[in-house]
């Protein structure tokens, strides 16, 4: 009986409580994000201006892939939708966002530095896209991050050591990118109670080295160095050959002059 009364009270509260007020930051966030992307398969047909003005009704949302919490967008899950374009920096306006999953699409461009303002973000999954440029060190400002999954992109540069300061980080994957340099010890060889990441988190980056991968590989001579050595050797051989020829011609010339002088002296009459 007590349980039934509790359910009744909750239902009455949901009826008489005033509706949550739309947040203009969420509207801006969703509008700019949608404008920055292309949706060729029309999976986001209900992402319209009218929906952005009031995206949440309590804990419910009419937007595909969006989840609300107390009238605010707190989760965006848009994987496998063939989305193109880029990630708008205005996504930072969704200040209550705790999970962002835009994996397995065809997004290009950099990871926005503005993600640092999503201070409640716990899950970031941007894997299997075509994102480029460097991993922003400012992601370390998202202190609640549990998951950073960036595998299968074209990210370059080094892995920011600042990410090792994320004490809650339990999943970290940057495999199959174009990263280079040493793996920060703060990520590759974590100590204490911090979760450790094995080699699978870093594989597929040919210029990445350090634990748990192997040491830096010797690259040997570069193509430019080999070409330079070849040109230098050729030039040196040419100079030596030219010098030898010049000396030979000089010696031959002197020898011929001496022989000619001898012949002339023999033809001179004696007085």
UniProtKB/TrEMBL annotation:
Pfam families: LRR_1, LRR_8
Protein topology in the membrane: Single-pass type I membrane protein
Keyword flag Lipid biosynthesis: no
Keywords (A to Z) from UniProt: Cell membrane, Glycoprotein, Leucine-rich repeat, Membrane, Repeat, Signal, Transmembrane, Transmembrane helix
Signal sequence range: 1-22
Keyword Aminoacyl-tRNA synthetase: no
Domain of life from the UniProt record: Eukaryota
Location in the cell: Cell membrane
SUPFAM superfamilies linked to this entry: L domain-like
Main subcellular localisation: membrane
Transmembrane regions: 223-249
GO cellular component: plasma membrane
Stored Gene3D superfamilies: Ribonuclease Inhibitor
Membership in a protein family: Belongs to the RLP family.
Protein name in the entry: Leucine-rich repeat-containing N-terminal plant-type domain-containing protein
């Amino acid at each position: 009986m007590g349980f039934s009364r509790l359910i009744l009270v909750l239902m009455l509260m949901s009826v008489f409580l005033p509706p949550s007020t739309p947040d203009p930051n969420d509207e801006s966030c969703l509008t700019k994000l949608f404008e920055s992307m292309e949706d060729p398969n029309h999976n986001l047909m209900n992402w319209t201006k009218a929906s952005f003005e009031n995206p949440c009704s309590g804990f419910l949302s009419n937007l595909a892939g969006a989840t609300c919490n107390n009238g605010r967008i707190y989760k965006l899950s848009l994987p496998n939708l063939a989305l193109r374009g880029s990630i708008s920096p205005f996504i930072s306006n969704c200040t209550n966002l705790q999970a962002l999953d835009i994996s397995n699409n065809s997004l290009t461009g950099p990871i926005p530095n503005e993600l640092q303002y999503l201070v409640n973000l716990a899950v970031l999954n941007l894997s299997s896209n075509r994102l480029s440029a460097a991993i922003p060190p400012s992601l370390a400002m998202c202190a609640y991050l549990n998951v950073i999954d960036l595998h299968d992109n074209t990210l370059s540069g080094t892995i920011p050591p600042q990410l090792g300061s994320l004490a809650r980080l339990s999943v970290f994957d940057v495999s199959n990118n174009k990263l280079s340099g040493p793996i920060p010890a703060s990520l590759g060889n974590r100590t204490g109670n911090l979760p450790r990441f094995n080699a699978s988190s870093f594989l597929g980056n040919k210029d990445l080295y350090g634990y748990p991968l192997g040491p830096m590989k010797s690259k040997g001579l570069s193509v430019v160095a080999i070409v330079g050595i070849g040109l230098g050797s050729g030039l040196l051989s040419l100079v030596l050959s030219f010098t030898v020829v010049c000396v030979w011609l000089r010696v031959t010339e002197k020898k011929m002059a001496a022989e000619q002088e001898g012949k002339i002296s023999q033809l001179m009459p004696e007085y």
